[in-house]
Amino acid sequence: MPITDRQIKSRREHLGSSDMAAVLGLDRFRNPYDVWLNKTGKLIEKERGNNQALYAGNAFEDGVLQFAETSLGKLRRNQYRSAKDRGLPIGANVDALVKDTGLPVEAKTAGLYGPLMENWGEEGTDQVPDRVIIQAQVHLICTLTDLCHIAAFLQGRGFMMFQVPADKVVQDYICETALDFWNNNVIKDIPPQNVTPSLEIVKRVRREPKSIADVDHAMIDTWKAAKDVLNAAKKTKNEAEAALLAAMGNAEAGASAAGNVTYYEQTRKGYVVQDSAYRVLRFTQKPLTTTGELHG
Fold first, then answer.
1. Is 67 a domain residue?
2. What pTM did the predictor assign?
């Protein structure tokens, strides 16, 4: 089920199972810098909005857990467990605990809106993506148990059950990394070194109105050069596309020995976009002022 506002707030007070996957560099969508920005309260809370993939995952979760109950027995859903009493900045919102054994259950869906992007092995094994391994080990650390069940619905494969046993070596590394990250990055408010935040996440950083920061001109030069390359590529692409459409005349498709192209009419449902504020990164050589205006 979707997490509550209270759970979202509490997650900033510890490193969760998905946080640890990101801190260890095993998450495709977040990295350690992203986690640091979140845990230090530097981000504007993202609106939940109409994220179809997220909605589908939440909607399917209960069905996945119902499937898990057919083999594991009754489950207690949405359970929070913490290792703070052992001096560890780790907590976990576990999807479910098996009522009879107390073993954690993690529910996963993959491929609902596209192809499977990660490797899932044979059912009944621990052959699950690395980030899921880390999540499972965090659950085991927090629940003090020795086996985590992974219930999944995978595109083209259907409902499946996997299991991840406790691994002391991996758990020790998780605990060591969590303590180091929490004490030396979060508590001291120092960003992780040698990693750049994800663009979509760093855009959500809270900005102080009318403030100005000193930045290395080389970073601006690199950004400008990348924009120039992108604009040149777009221009080349548009010219090539125009030439191709012209060569097709009034046809809807084109055939060649190398392959075919189509230019079929598409339909798009109408919708109204609400007013919203946003920021745009632009370059200027005009002097800046703390009033937010440009001189000249």
1. yes
2. 0.81
